[in-house]
């Protein structure tokens, strides 16, 4: 199969290209947006159109949804295949989601339930996965120096969301609005496995909020769901920021915590801040060598499993994550991975698994085997191609 792969520098792209190539598909890449983030919709359209005129492709593929690609494929009558790996992806509110040549795969079942009705024949649910073959090969290259440098009791790799939280631009001019939103945020911080942010936004609160913060502008041809934008872009990211800051602070005060992030860590003076980790070479080794790997799922991911869980397990690491309602669909809690549903449970389980090394290692091995047998990227790519 000839596949035209439109790239924008998602961390998922290299692994998917590698797996598709191993499955004997021919990949042609459009890479301009990897280096030019100011690329216009017209330029995107021209790049894809010219490529489709030059050669016959069976599908056009991208990570996440590009309305322009959907429109071009609809004209050329070529399936546009995309896999949604993030949330929120505001482009899903575009009218282009209804195009008949779309084949959109969503990793979060709540997203699938929200959007499936817009295009029942073109929208599907599919969880994420890990490139187990690459990770297996990488683990064999771990050196003694890396074992000393990258090993940790407890580690967290990722953003603290302090630098990408538009809620923080809120003008404190309305004490009622601020108090109401603070109350919602505090309540959501205490609840795991259910996201109720959008349900709490009334029309009055939405209008007050739009007047107090630079608000997201939907493209003209889109379903302008402003409550969803407020819930996920603003409140969801704020909840994520506060959860990570608060929990990491507590953990660092009681345990040795290695923190790999480019975010501001001034509020975490007791954490061992290690800077950024190289995504493809260092990060999997950190997962493999850490006794406990923490995952805090971004709140806009309402039910699904983020890529981080698959990556940790695929690297043979032990993962301790917040509870997500889809976890029991794929893993047995306490056998393949561990979850927490409160701050106290998180701290208790860190202490328990640091002391019970054999049990921790067995869980990590079980999780690794489960991903390799049922959740590898090779399996996922076969599922996508069989579906289309």
- The gyration radius over C-alpha positions equals 21 Å
Low-confidence segments: none
Total number of β-strand segments?
Answer: 12
Q: Give the number of helices.
A: 16
Q: Quote the beta fraction.
A: 5-15%
Assembly classification: single chain
Overall pLDDT metric: 96
Q: Helical residue percent?
A: 40-55%
Q: Shape, please?
A: globular
Largest sheet: 6 strands, parallel
Please list the strands of the largest sheet in the order they lie side by side.
Answer: 2-1-3-4-5-6
Series of secondary-structure elements, N-terminal to C-terminal: EHEHHEHEEHEHHEHHHEEHEHEHEHHH
Content-based structural category: alpha/beta
What does this structure look like?
- 45% of the residues lie in helices and 14% in strands.
- The protein has 16 helices and twelve strands.
- The protein has helices spanning 13-22, 32-35, 41-54, 67-76, 109-115, 132-139, 144-150, 175-189, 203-212, 226-254, 283-289, 307-314, 327-330, 343-355, 357-374, 377-387; strands spanning 2-6, 26-30, 59-63, 80-84, 102-106, 123-125, 152-157, 257-260, 272-273, 290-295, 319-322, 338-340.
- It has a six-stranded parallel sheet with strand order 2-1-3-4-5-6, sandwiched between helices.
- Helix 3 (41-54) packs parallel to helix 4 (67-76) and helix 8 crosses helix 10.
- It is globular, with a radius of gyration of 21 Å.
């Amino acid at each position: 199969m000839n596949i035209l792969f439109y790239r924008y520098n998602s961390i998922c792209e290299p692994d998917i290209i590698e797996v598709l190539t191993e499955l004997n598909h021919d990949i042609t890449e459009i890479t301009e947006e990897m280096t030019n983030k100011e690329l216009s919709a017209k330029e995107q359209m021209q790049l894809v159109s010219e490529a489709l005129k030059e050669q016959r492709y069976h599908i056009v593929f991208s990570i996440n949804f590009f309305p322009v690609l959907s429109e071009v494929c609809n004209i050329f009558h070529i399936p546009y295949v995309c896999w949604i790996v993030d949330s929120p992806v505001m482009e899903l509110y575009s009218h282009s989601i209804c195009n008949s040549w779309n084949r959109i795969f969503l990793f979060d079942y709540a997203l699938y339930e929200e959007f499936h009705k817009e295009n029942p024949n073109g929208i599907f649910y599919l969880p994420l996965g890990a490139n187990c073959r690459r990770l297996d090969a990488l683990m064999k290259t771990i050196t003694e120096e890396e074992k000393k440098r990258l090993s940790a009791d407890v580690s967290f790799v990722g953003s603290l969301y302090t630098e990408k939280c538009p809620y923080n631009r809120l003008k404190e001019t309305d004490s009622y609005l601020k108090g109401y939103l603070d109350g919602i945020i505090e309540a959501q911080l205490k609840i795991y496995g259910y996201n109720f942010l959008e349900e709490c936004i009334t029309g009055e609160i939405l209008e007050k909020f739009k007047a107090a913060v630079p608000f997201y502008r939907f493209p003209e041809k889109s379903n302008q769901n402003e409550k969803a934008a407020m819930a996920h872009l603003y409140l969801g990211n704020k909840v994520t920021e506060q959860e990570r800051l608060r929990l990491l602070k507590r953990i660092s005060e009681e345990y040795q915590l290695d923190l790999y992030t480019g975010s501001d860590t001034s509020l975490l003076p007791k954490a061992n801040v290690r800077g950024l980790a190289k995504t493809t070479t260092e990060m999997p080794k950190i997962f493999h060598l850490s006794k406990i790997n923490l995952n805090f799922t971004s709140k806009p991911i309402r039910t699904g499993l983020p890529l981080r869980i698959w990556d940790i397990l695929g690297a043979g690491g032990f993962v301790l994550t917040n509870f997500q309602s889809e976890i029991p669909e794929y893993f047995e809690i306490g056998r393949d991975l561990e979850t927490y549903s409160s701050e106290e449970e998180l701290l208790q389980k860190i202490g328990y698994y640091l002391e019970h090394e054999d049990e921790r290692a067995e869980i990590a091995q079980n999780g690794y085997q489960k991903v390799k047998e049922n959740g590898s990227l090779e399996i996922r790519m076969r599922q996508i191609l069989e579906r289309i």
